[in-house]
Design goal:
By secondary structure, this protein is α/β, with parallel strands linked by helices. Helices cover 27% and strands 22% of the residues. The strands form 7 sheets. Strands 1, 4, 5, 6, 7, 8, 9, 10 and 11 form a 9-stranded mixed sheet that branches. Strands 12, 13, 14, 15, 16, 17, 25, 26 and 29 form a 9-stranded mixed sheet that branches. A 5-stranded mixed sheet has the order 2-3-19-24-18, with helices on one face. The longest helix has 18 residues, at 563-580. The termini are far apart. Bound molecules: guanosine-5'-triphosphate, sulfopyruvate and manganese (II) ion.
């Protein structure tokens, strides 16, 4: 059991990378006094340290060694079955007033929450090792870059943070010894991995995160959703930039023209896949490169938006990943990868639903039970994940370390909608685009605990990640628009529309280049479109569908607006805005009225 693992005592030179900043040292002492660990392990992210922690993890059954011939330096981790996804119901934004957190966040009074968490953390690391992880989010020379420290009692967290962030010396160097420097305080403890004692809490005013009772993903890799999005969005509004749940990709035409786009899709709705897209044969000469697959930090420079990826690795959805759907991901996860909650085969390989090749006759499922193709349970958990360094990605963009970021030509919103939302359409202008983002909806997925497949409003794919009042967040988007002289065009896509037979109408994956090309055409001022009440829609002949095996009717269906569905949709927008109350900016109410008028409502 991960939570009862005894303290580890590393050899000399490992675990003693103490930072010089006194503010950090004081804070670590304060947390140590509270949690009473057996010893403190100061992480530096070095190869030697990593080897030591992997050896310890293998000893303590935190990791299982995979077939090193097939998957060099790769390991499997099985989480507690009660702990397999983000827990939105236990995620809190603790601001002085409830209004600051807004209607879409769980709120608690900071004083009360600190008291409760201190109670839970008291003596929580007795007999155990406390790891201190210094990390940096963003390229070394970016003005957007942030430093964080995560204290944790989980080796799995340390091993993952080393992949997901720029960890160790670079972070310490960036922080320096200024006692007033800005840095994020993160505290994580597994406790007894019990959902009743599981809280993911954010204190934006203190730049502090405390997470207890989980050992999984976005709940505990505090750099990711907690810092880069929830605290990040709070800081971004204060400091005039944007922190978004968005991939960033580069797309180069055969003529050598290159654009970058940012695409905000909710969890498990296709960001990693889109960011690593490989075009089909017909699109010879087109090339897509990955800047980021999950989070973008955007700033204004000379009236344009530029984006950096604050992360250093990918924590990606495994099921459905194959050489057919995402070859770049498959190559990335062929080595130096931590797999969580996938199935294990007899020869020490990993398996999951949707992988290439034959289904194994037997395997051990994600819970450690024997599995055969006849089993009712899935072999891999639907939210099983890989953690892999971004440098493993053959399609990594060369400008990943550019401090200013890459210039963004288009922002794409998208959700998982089996009906209503067409394959693609373009907003009339920035403010209309903000409306598209603010009203987007998507079917829930296994990335968070709770019902799957329920349509919910997920503004800008940030519903679970906006660290402050969503009305102020909408206004921040509108305000950013006012500062842009050359704003990106804004689009909405939906890869997931289904036909009457319940099957996806659009082939998706690599074929999404056909939609991306239309988007780029529009950015360059060519590319046909017809005006509709919801925005600019391509006609079938505006999309390059050559050599695509798709029915004409399917294309018509993908691009069609069903008036009845849209009447319901617009009612849904109103219902959502009404549920938020008077915090919705006037401009967005105006946009809604215009949209309704377009449908004679
Ligand atoms: P998070 O890491 O949770 O933020 O997810 P994500 O947005 O990066 O989603 P990801 O690319 O991992 O895709 C999630 C699931 O959707 C996987 O099972 C994919 O195989 C599937 N998927 C991705 N793109 C497409 C597509 O274009 N069409 C279809 N039908 N499925 C897709
Ligand atoms: C998401 O849920 O959007 C993820 C996975 O990217 S997690 O890191 O668990 O949040
Ligand atoms: Mn995500």
């Amino acid at each position: 059991m991960t939570n009862s693992a005894p303290a580890i005592f590393p050899p000399k030179g490992v675990g003693d990378a103490k930072p010089v900043n006194q503010a950090v040292l004081d804070w670590v002492q304060e947390i140590a006094k509270l949690t009473e660990p057996e010893n403190i392990f100061w992480c530096d992210g070095s190869e030697r340290e990593n080897e030591f922690l992997i050896a310890e993890s293998l000893n303590q059954d935190v990791l299982i060694k995979l077939n090193q011939k097939k998957l060099p330096r790769s390991y499997l981790h099985r989480s507690n079955p009660n702990d397999v996804a983000r827990v939105e119901q236990f995620t809190f934004v603790c601001t002085p007033t409830k209004e600051e957190a807004g209607p879409t966040n769980n709120w608690s009074d900071p004083g009360e929450m600190y008291d409760k968490l201190r109670g839970l953390l008291k003596g929580a690391m007795r007999g155990r090792t406390m790891f201190v992880i210094p990390y940096m989010m963003g390229p070394a020379d970016s003005p957007l870059t942030k430093v964080g420290f995560e204290i944790t009692d989980s080796k799995y967290v340390v091993l993952n943070m080393r992949i997901m962030t720029r960890m160790g010396e670079v972070a310490l160097k960036r922080l320096g010894n200024d006692p007033n420097a800005e840095w994020n305080r993160g505290v994580h403890s597994l406790l007894d991995v019990n959902p009743e004692r599981r809280f993911i809490c954010h204190f934006p005013q203190d730049n502090t995160i405390i997470s207890v009772g989980s050992g999984y993903g976005g709940n505990v890799l505090l750099s990711k959703k907690c810092l880069a999005l929830r605290i990040g969005s709070y800081l971004a509004r204060k400091q005039g930039w944007m922190a978004e749940h968005t991939l960033i990709l580069g797309v180069e035409s055969p003529e050598g023209r290159k654009h970058y786009v940012a695409a905000a899709f909710p969890s498990a709705c296709g960001k990693t896949n889109f960011a690593m897209l490989i075009p089909p044969a017909h699109f010879k000469g087109w090339k897509v490169t990955t800047v980021g697959d999950d989070i973008g930090w955007l700033q204004i420079h000379d009236g344009r938006l530029y984006a950096v990826n604050p992360e250093n690795g990918y924590f990606g959805v495994v099921p459905g990943t194959s050489y057919k759907s995402n070859p770049n991901a498959m190559r990335s996860i062929a080595h130096d990868t931590i797999y969580t909650n996938v199935a294990l085969t007899d020869d020490g390989d990993v398996w999951w639903e949707g992988k290439d090749g034959p289904v194994p006759a037997r395997a051990v499922d994600w819970q450690g039970n024997d599995w055969t193709p006849e089993s009712k349970e899935k072999a891999a958990h639907p939210n099983s994940r890989f953690t892999t360094p971004m440098r493993n990605n053959p399609a990594l963009d060369p400008d990943i370390e550019k401090g200013r970021g890459v210039p963004i030509s288009a922002i794409i919103f998208g959700g998982r909608r089996s009906d209503t939302a067409p394959l693609v359409y373009e907003a009339f202008d920035w403010n209309h685009g903000v409306y598209l983002g603010a009203t987007m909806a998507s079917e829930t997925t296994a990335a968070a605990t709770g019902a799957v497949g329920r349509v919910r409003r997920d503004p800008m794919a940030m519903l679970p990640f906006c660290g402050y009042n969503i009305g102020d967040y909408f206004q921040h988007w509108l305000d950013i628009g006012k500062r842009l002289t050359d704003p990106p065009l804004i689009f909405n896509v939906n890869w997931f529309r289904k036909g009457a037979d319940g099957k996806f109408l659009w082939p998706g994956f690599g074929e999404n280049i056909r939609v991306l090309k239309w988007i780029i055409d529009r950015c360059e001022g060519h590319g046909g479109a017809v005006k509709s009440p919801i925005g600019w829609l391509p006609s079938p002949h505006d999309l390059d569908l050559a050599e695509l095996d798709i029915d004409h009717n399917a294309v018509d269906e993908l691009l069609q607006l069903d008036h009845e569905e849209w009447q319901k949709e617009i009612a849904g927008h109103k219902e959502f805005f009404d549920s938020l109350g008077d915090i919705v900016p006037e401009e967005l109410q105006k946009q809604r009225q215009q949209l309704a008028a377009g449908f004679d409502l």
